[in-house]
Amino acid sequence: MSSLAPLLFLSLFLVRPPDKDAVIAIQEIQFKVNGEEAGKWENRIAVGRNRIRVDKENVSVIFDYRLQLFIHIDHVTKRYQISNSETPRAATRRFLVTLAPIVNGMLDRGSNLVSKLNKKKVIHGFPCMAFRLNYPDHLGIETILWTFPHPVFSTAEYRRLIFSLLGSEVPGDAKYIINSILREIWGTPLLIQTSMTLGEDVVEMTSGFSYLEYRKNSGAQVFEIPKGYSMITPEDSPVSESPRPESPEPQSPAPNRP
Fold first, then answer.
1. Which pLDDT score, from 0 to 100, does residue 185 have?
2. Which of 9, 30, 164, 214 is in Cβ range 3.0-4.6 Å of 52 for a Cys bridge?
3. What are residue 46's DSSP bridge partners?
4. Average pLDDT of 95-122?
5. Cα dist. 210→23, 28, 62, 123, 234 in Å?
6. Beta bridge partners of 74
7. Could you tell me if 71 and 80 are in contact, meaning their C-beta atoms sit under 8 angstroms apart?
8. What is the Cα–Cα distance from 173 to 94, expressed in whole angstroms?
9. How confident is the model at residue 246 (pLDDT cuts 50, 70, 90)?
10. What is the structure's pLDDT at 237?
């Protein structure tokens, strides 16, 4: 990115009115290896119409859909950095297209990506239905989505969250697969359970939303750069990387649990 590009992106970011309403979410993630816990944390997230904010320790990341740019904010040094780095196309495509075969170098868009299971579970008071992603058996991957048409967190907002976590300029194949999955399931995934075999190990990951709230007039500051913070130039040291939040942060927009 040229030295003038951050200033141009910043000016565009600041002149656009920020979102006033947002879905506030707390996401809990747990990893297990061979049945033993290997990691556990919370992500704190705010989903607006045009911007997403996620928090990790003392760093916040704001993503603007329209501009396709990230603002990385360090609350310790009170500095921020602008990035418009694209999604790693090869890595993203390789991970997602395992759900659908490649024919003559092109994604087979006629394949069945999701199967409905005859299972139900109540998650935080909502009666959820189970769907399985149809990974080929030889991959040793099983992913179950527990879904419900949540009155606060719609599939449109969930889609914006997933696309923002994938980065800017999401590849077309990845968009197609995500959109296809969301069309085939019933509502929004409130809990995702994945199990995969890696060599002699079995790795399990559980990801679920423990708190969801729609907050009107939540305060534009949730999606803005805090006042008094300075922008990092290309000559400065970068802000601590935080493309994916891993733990709760006091600066996070999400409240304490009621």
1. 95
2. 164
3. 24, 53
4. 84
5. 13, 7, 22, 9, 39
6. 59, 79
7. yes
8. 10
9. very low
10. 59
DSSP string covering the chain: --SSHHHHHHHHHHHSPPPS-EEEEEEEEEEEETTEEEEEEEEEEEE-SSEEEEEETTEEEEEETTTTEEEEEETTTTEEEEE-PBP-HHHHHHHHGGGS-EETTEE-TTS--EEEEEEEEEETTEEEEEEEE---GGG-EEEEEEEE--SSS-HHHHHHHHHHHH-BS--HHHHHHHHHHHHHSSSEEEEEEEEEEETTEEEEEEEEEEEEEEETT--GGGGSPPTT-EEPPTTSPPPPP-SS--S--TT-SSPPP-
pLDDT digits (tens, 9 = 90+) for 118-163: 999 999 999 999 999 999 888 889 999 999 999 999 999 999 898 8
Topology of 5-231 in CATH? outer membrane lipoprotein receptor (LolB), chain A (2.50.20)
Q: How high does pLDDT run on average in the chain?
A: 81
Backbone φ, ψ for residue 151 (5° rounding): -70, -15
Question: Can you say whether residue 123 is alpha, beta or left, with left for phi > 0 and alpha for psi between -120 and 50 degrees?
Answer: beta
Measured distance CA(182)–CA(161) in Å, rounded: 13
Long-range contacts of 39-43 (CB under 8 A, 24+ apart): 41/246, 41/247, 41/248, 42/210, 42/247, 42/248, 43/244, 43/245, 43/246
Rounded to whole angstroms, the Cα distance separating 67 from 188 reads 26
